[in-house]
Amino acid sequence: MMRAWMWLLLFLSTSAFSGIFEKQCVFAGVQLRQHEVNLFTRHNVKLRLYAINNVSSQYDIWLTHHNPKNPGVGAGWDTHLLSGHWSVLLVTHRRFTLYCHRQNSEGEMQRTSCRRHLRVCQYKSFTTQNPALSGYWVLENEHFSSLPSHLIARGFYIH
Fold it and tell me: Assuming Cys at both sites, which of 65, 95, 119, 156 could form a disulfide with 77, CB separation 3.0 to 4.6 Å?
């Protein structure tokens, strides 16, 4: 009986969270260009949380970040996003750029359209139990249905 209540509670909290998740994620602080996604703020907001969805039905997308002035800074930012999957990124810089790539039939990486293959939104309001001095991938390559519970498990709460 106790186990059934716990599953019900988890389902209800996840269902409620899914509704909040969709309503609270807005197209703000996002600029989708041909081969890049620019995440930015005009304010002094220290932490920003973005959800990124690969809407392509054909391609997996590789998101990369590199800083031409300091190439080593981009290490650890590359991620693989399967078709239909989501990733969530915590950003602390005022401007942050991701580049979109896909693998061609010869197995080589080539630039591809971020505008065509991605949907990106920023959460209007969230809290975290994990103080961050720098950004990181909070979740990578997840199904939409698992985002709410996995965000909560990592200490992020969407309001």
Answer: 65
Backbone angles phi, psi at 73, to 5 degrees: -65, -25
Q: How far apart are the first and last CA of the chain?
A: 31
- Here the tokens at position 66 are 């590199």
pLDDT in tens, 63-105: 999 765 655 555 568 999 999 999 999 999 889 999 999 999 9
39 bridge partner residues: 30, 96
Structure tokens that stand for 6 in this block: 């716990």
Token pair recorded at residue 125 = 């309001």
| Contact predicate 66/104, CB 8 Å | no
Q: What is the largest CA-CA distance in the chain?
A: 59
CB atoms near residue 121 (< 10 Å): 19
pLDDT digits (tens, 9 = 90+) for 12-57: 344 444 455 567 899 889 999 899 999 998 777 789 999 999 999 9
Check if the beta carbon of residue 57 is closer than 8 Å to that of residue 142: no
Contact (Cβ atoms closer than 8 angstroms) between residue 148 and residue 51: no
Instruction: Tell me if the pTM is above 0.85.
Output: no
